[in-house]
Amino acid sequence: MTTTHQGFWANLFAPENSLGQLVDAHDQPITVGDLNPTVLVLLSAYWCPPCRAFTPAILDFLAKHGDEVSVLYFGRDYNETMQTFNLRTKPYAKFQWHARNIDTFKRLKVAYPSIQGIPTLFAVDRDSGKIYTERGAASLRISPDTVLADWKNGIDITQEEEDAYWNRSRASNAPEVDIVPHLPLDTIVDATGATVSYDALNPFVLFYFNAVWAHSEGDKLTPELVAFAGEHPEDVSVVHYSLDADAADADKSLQGTNFHRFAHSANLVETAYQLDKFMTKDNAYNTLAAPRVIVVEKESHKIVAKHHYGILIKPSEQVSAWKQGEPGITDDEVNAYFQKRWEEAQKKKAEEEAAAKKAEA
């Protein structure tokens, strides 16, 4: 029997869109009709920090409105393994990962210009396809206690209120957390598999959280860390923390390195999950996700660098800055780095589109 979709569902399930099978949180096939009356269509991805920061608010909202609301995840994850890892603890319905999700996402952006990126959250009536809001990623957090009733009564935040929400400072006054006691330090081994004590590591420990599925176009970070560690053999120790389910995949990430590592076990994923909850307790944006490097001063456990961008952008200045208790790079420099990458990508895209049009002429 052919299902006739209405409203938002007609656009989402348009024949030209390639969608994976719609399944529940246990991977059992379902239809939209099996969802709760209000469906939160979540455009998101594991690799997106604001998306991960949104997760606690969504889960809390679901816990309070479990009989009224369902979350339907449409992923922009790099691959199936990333999506599976991302959703393993979340009670979401979802479309199984599909390589052409990006094409469907682009079509949705044309149909709904409010989609500027991710996370995006639409609240949709299950039966009619009526869109209650296209600004749910902001409104759900602005007024979580009343927003469901507001949506149903035709009340939504304004564009100005949404812009003000996204433009507000993400700076947190939460104190730095000590991650070291939460790590399985007694399982650290060297490249030969020999046990290494934490005390035997160099003054600055780079905890490198990684997985083979965590990179969009191949692992470009690991070679940079190899070179960086090679330049600072007396100051830096890299300790690799694998989020791969398979030990063989973890080993693949380490090929060509002399990194220390946490001995692979099934417990690493659960330990990282608990560490993430600890790190985000007072700062939702301090998420633990692969790939990420956290640099710790061994003796004090002080986090001297929260990420690896200083190593990528200004590698020669990092260790000296860390010795002064400084992160070695500013937020403005990191933002400029990403702005430049985005401009280069846009230029390349424009050149490719121009070349394609010329070839068709």
Automatic annotation (TrEMBL):
Gene3D superfamilies: Glutaredoxin. It comes from Achlya hypogyna (Oomycete). GO terms for biological process: negative regulation of protein ubiquitination; negative regulation of Wnt signaling pathway. It comes from the Eukaryota. One of its GO terms (molecular function) is thioredoxin-disulfide reductase (NADPH) activity. Residues 8-156 form the Thioredoxin domain. It holds the Pfam family Thioredoxin_8. InterPro entries: Thioredoxin-like_fold, Thioredoxin-like_sf, Thioredoxin_CS, Thioredoxin_domain. GO terms for cellular component: nucleus. This is Thioredoxin domain-containing protein.
